[in-house]
């Protein structure tokens, strides 16, 4: 069957009609489409008067499989057919063909790829369908792709992902669904891809992360839920259990969202976390225990949050931390003495008046735009300081041993 130049008229009925199974579609046929479904006679089951096409569709569904075709005409008659012959069909408008949603992926322009075509477009265990106007993955479409390792669906027009979307991709390691318009994720959508290692979901329209969403992803090392280049972003709440099974997770990017609170449970289970970017959120509360739970952190960016509430010794215990970015956080006081491996420290644009820390390993220190008057620590000014990049512009320095030239 060649549907590719048909004008598809798709009604996703599970949204409209509660009782209807999710995999029903009605496709509008053009008068002269050559469909291979002609029968040797036309069987009209019922003519049902109604003003609404939706009622006509409901009627069809109520008749189970005996309804295969409907026409809905301007004079408000709904005709329900079991079979049609070519001579009856040809030239008629308003013909809708009932079909089960076949396991395919669909593009905006009406074309689609079937299960067998999908495995055929894989090259070296990769499938790249980015920037293609992809707008629907029907359940089990990738079923034959059990050898594929990498799937790139970035820059498309997916709005939802249902369970079994990636069914069969038992070897999949890298899944890139960034830059779509996804707002709905069924909570078991990643259930059948247990070996997933990298998941890119950034730049979508996600609002919340369901508690079981990542349940089986015990191999996941990197997850990207951030929004780049977009000003109004969406994730507000992360369920406490969302990350609980991600024992291997090393990188979480969740910047530019709307998260207002992280407590000691938020990234529970993510004990191997090395990189956390939670900058540009709305943080107003962070549990005191946060830093003791993530002792493997190497890179932490919390910039552009309001951390005025934070205790000065909050970062104690992060002994592996090398990069700490706290730009624009309303911080008044901070104690960094336990961060023995810290190399890059950005404290610019805060409210720090007095800064005296033993930062023996720091090489890059940015502390500009603070109301800083006293910067005296010997390790900043001494001969063998490791600081080689120091930015103290826009401060109010009156007392310092640093030779500012
Ligand atoms: C996929 O490739 C196989 C083997 O190369 C071929 O036999 C088959 O016809 C192809 N299927 C489609 C749908 O193109
Ligand atoms: C529709 O889009 C797909 C993916 O971009 C493309 O491969 C296909 O040729 C297009 N089909 C038509 C009929 O334009
Ligand atoms: C899609 O992802 C694959 C693998 O990560 C990559 O090789 C390819 O360049 C990506 N395509 C685009 C358009 O980004
Ligand atoms: C489809 O996706 C592309 C790439 O992400 C985007 O530029 C375009 O605006 C989207 N179209 C619609 C109708 O959302
Ligand atoms: C995902 O796709 C985006 C855009 O095409 C690309 O920049 C990024 O590198 C990809 N990520 C992976 C892991 O392939
Ligand atoms: C996790 O994956 C296993 C197979 O790897 C499967 O049997 C089990 O049902 C999955 N559990 C959930 C909650 O998805
Ligand atoms: C953000 O946008 C800039 C230019 O507008 C572009 O150069 C950059 O690649 C974008 N970043 C991402 C992660 O898409
Ligand atoms: C840290 O966060 C700030 C604020 O969102 C951002 O501008 C900066 O690029 C981030 N730096 C790194 C290294 O991620
Ligand atoms: C914080 O950690 C301490 C010591 O491990 C524990 O007693 C306390 O209950 C924790 N608080 C929270 C809110 O988890
Ligand atoms: C930061 O939060 C404090 C309370 O925690 C609040 O008083 C203050 O107005 C906030 N500042 C900004 C700039 O939002
Ligand atoms: C600063 O810290 C380093 C490493 O922790 C330590 O060796 C050194 O003695 C400290 N210096 C001062 C003056 O406390
Ligand atoms: C600046 O800090 C040094 C070292 O802590 C201290 O001895 C000195 O009194 C301070 N100066 C002022 C004016 O606060």
Beta strands, count: 29
Report strand order across the widest sheet: 8-10-12-14-16-18-20-22-23-24-26-28
List each distinct ligand once: 2-acetamido-2-deoxy-beta-D-glucopyranose
What is the percent of helical residues? under 10%
Query: Which runs of at least 5 residues are low in confidence (pLDDT < 50)?
Result: 1-22, 228-233
Overall CATH architecture of one domain: 3-Layer(bba) Sandwich
Mean pLDDT rating: 81
Keywords for this structure?
single chain; 405 residues; mainly beta; Hepatocyte Growth Factor; 12-stranded parallel β-sheet; 6 helices; disordered N terminus; binds 2-acetamido-2-deoxy-beta-D-glucopyranose
Task: Put the structure in a nutshell.
The protein has helices spanning 13-16, 53-62, 86-89, 115-120, 290-293, 378-381; strands at residues 24-29, 43-49, 69-72, 77-83, 95-100, 104-107, 112-114, 126-128, 134-137, 150-152, 160-161, 174-176, 184-185, 198-200, 208-209, 222-224, 237-238, 251-253, 261-262, 275-277, 285-286, 299-301, 323-325, 344-346, 354-355, 364-366, 374-375, 389-391, 399-400.
Could you explain how this protein is built, in words?
Keywords: Leucine-rich repeat, Repeat, Signal. Pfam families: LRR_8. There is one protein chain. With 405 residues, the protein is mostly beta strands. It has a domain of 88 residues: Hepatocyte Growth Factor (3-Layer(bba) Sandwich). It contains six helices and 29 strands. The strands form seven sheets. Strands 8-10-12-14-16-18-20-22-23-24-26-28 form a twelve-stranded parallel beta sheet, with no helix packed on it. The protein has a five-stranded antiparallel beta sheet with strand order 1-5-3-4-2, with helices on one face. Strands 7-6-9 form a three-stranded antiparallel beta sheet. A hairpin with a 4-residue loop joins strand 3 and strand 4. It is elongated and about 95 Å long. The N and C termini lie far apart (77 Å). The N terminus is likely disordered. Bound molecules: 2-acetamido-2-deoxy-beta-D-glucopyranose (12 copies). One 2-acetamido-2-deoxy-beta-D-glucopyranose binds next to loops.
């Amino acid at each position: 069957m060649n549907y590719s130049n048909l004008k598809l008229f798709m009604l996703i009925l599970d949204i409209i009609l509660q009782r209807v199974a999710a995999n029903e579609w009605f496709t509008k046929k053009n008068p002269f489409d050559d469909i291979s479904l002609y029968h040797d006679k036309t069987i009209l089951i019922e003519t049902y008067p109604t003003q609404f096409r939706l009622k006509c569709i409901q009627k069809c569904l109520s008749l189970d499989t005996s309804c295969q075709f409907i026409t809905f005409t301007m004079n408000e008659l709904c005709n329900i057919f079991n079979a049609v012959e070519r001579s009856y069909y040809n030239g008629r408008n308003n013909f809708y063909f009932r079909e089960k949603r076949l396991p395919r992926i669909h593009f905006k322009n009406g074309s689609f790829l079937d299960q067998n075509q999908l495995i055929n477009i894989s090259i070296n265990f990769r499938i790249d369908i980015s920037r293609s106007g992809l707008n629907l993955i029907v359940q089990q479409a990738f079923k034959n792709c059990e050898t594929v390792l990498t799937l790139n669906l970035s820059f498309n027009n997916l709005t939802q992902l249902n369970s079994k979307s990636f069914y069969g991709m038992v070897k999949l390691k890298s899944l890139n669904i960034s830059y779509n318009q996804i707002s709905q994720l069924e909570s078991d959508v990643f259930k059948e891809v247990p070996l997933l290692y990298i998941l890119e979901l950034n730049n979508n329209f996600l609002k919340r992360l369901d508690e079981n969403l990542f349940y089986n992803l015990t191999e996941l090392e990197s997850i990207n839920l951030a929004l780049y280049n977009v000003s109004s972003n969406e994730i507000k709440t992360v369920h406490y259990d969302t990350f609980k099974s991600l024992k291997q997770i090393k990188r979480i990017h969740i910047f530019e969202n709307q998260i207002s609170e992280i407590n000691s449970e938020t990234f529970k289970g993510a004990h191997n976390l090395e990189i956390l970017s939670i900058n540009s959120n709305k943080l107003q509360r962070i549990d005191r225990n946060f830093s003791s739970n993530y002792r493997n952190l190497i890179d932490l960016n919390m910039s552009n949050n309001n951390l005025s509430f934070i205790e000065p010794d909050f970062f104690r215990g992060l002994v592996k931390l090398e990069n700490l970015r706290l730009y624009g956080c309303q911080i008044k006081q901070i104690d960094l003495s336990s961060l023995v491996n810290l190399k890059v420290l950005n404290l610019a644009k805060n409210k720090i008046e007095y800064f005296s820390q033993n930062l023996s390993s720091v090489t890059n220190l940015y502390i500009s735009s603070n109301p800083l008057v006293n910067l005296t620590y010997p390790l900043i000014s001494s001969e063998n300081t490791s600081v080689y990049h120091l930015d103290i512009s826009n401060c109010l320095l009156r007392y310092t041993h640093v030779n500012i030239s």
